[in-house]
Write a structure and sequence with these properties.
By secondary structure, this protein is of the alpha/beta class. It has nine helices and twelve strands. Strands 8-9-10-3-11-12 form a six-stranded mixed β-sheet, with helices on both faces. A hairpin with a 2-residue loop joins strand 4 and strand 5. The chain is globular, with a radius of gyration of 19 Å. The structure holds adenosine-5'-diphosphate.
Length: 255
């Protein structure tokens, strides 16, 4: 078996005295597309925020490409990771949020070149070419010199996706990226994500309430309930033949 790209081992997470993740074991293979579904408050966002190193597990381990997130090995012992180690691990991970978080004072093109130039050290011309190609792919090749405020929500979200993908991460995290959008722009954003997914290279973890989208894009659906993985499997099985009553009643809401 190939080494998992992402692995959670018995991960627990508490906020104050409340345990919101209660022992998560989950691996994602290179290139695999995983949809994370479940009721609000079940812990989906916390799972992906931990991978982005925005939250630290209370106990358990997370590795990316075999490298522990919060620890590093020194002479065979695991010691707490320093900022340099975290930066390296984060370089494998891209994230798109519900709110696009574009830099308002930068053009669309600059939004997509600043990290490749400043973080990856790619020459400006090369970064611009990469960004232009990607922005063209998401249908915004004619908006390079516009500013975020001049674009619709759906267009801004497509920029946010392009900005993450130009970094060529090994895994992309999408946290309910359509839930803050006007209904008429949801489709165009999902279409862009699907196109990128179809290219196959990057693994993806998608938190979504769009069940048709999950069916189209995901190789596997994971159903989270009260901080545990209650059920998982191929989309067909999870959406057509849910085993547990909890998943059945969760899916009822989308019919
Ligand atoms: P989901 O994404 O499935 O809606 P979350 O991961 O956002 O769930 O939240 C899981 C639980 O953890 C919720 O009860 C939420 O209130 C709580 N929680 C999340 N982040 C924090 C935080 N920073 N401080 C306190 N509680 C939090």
């Amino acid at each position: 078996m190939t080494q998992p790209l992402v692995e959670y081992k018995d991960v627990h997470k508490s906020f104050d005295d409340v345990e919101v993740l209660k022992g998560i074991d989950l691996s994602v293979a290179p290139g695999e597309k995983l949809a994370l579904i479940g009721p609000s408050g079940s812990g989906k966002t916390t799972i992906i925020r931990m991978l982005m190193t925005l939250e630290q597990p209370t106990s358990g381990y997370i590795t990316v490409d075999g490298t522990p997130l919060w620890h590093k090995e020194v002479n065979g012992n695991l010691v707490p990771a320093d900022e340099k180690h975290l930066r390296q691990v984060r370089g494998n991970i891209g994230m798109v949020f519900q709110h696009f978080n574009l830099f308002p004072h930068m053009t669309i093109l600059k939004n997509c070149t600043s990290a490749p130039v400043n973080v990856l050290g790619i020459p400006k011309e090369e970064a611009e070419q990469r960004a232009k190609d990607m922005l063209t792919k998401v249908g915004l090749g004619d908006k390079l010199d516009s500013y975020p405020a001049q674009l619709s929500g759906g267009q801004q979200q497509r920029v946010a996706i392009a900005r993450a993908v130009v970094m060529r991460p090994k895994v992309m995290l999408f946290d309910e990226v359509t839930s803050a959008l006007d209904p008429e722009t949801v489709g165009e954003v999902l279409e862009v994500i699907k196109d990128i997914a179809d290219e196959g290279e990057m693994a993806m973890i998608l938190v979504t309430h769009e069940m048709d989208f999950a069916r189209d894009v995901a190789d596997r659906i994971v159903f989270l309930e009260s901080g545990v993985i209650a059920e998982q499997g191929p989309p067909q099985q999870i959406l057509e033949n849910p085993e547990s009553e909890r998943l059945q009643s969760f899916l009822e809401r989308f019919r």
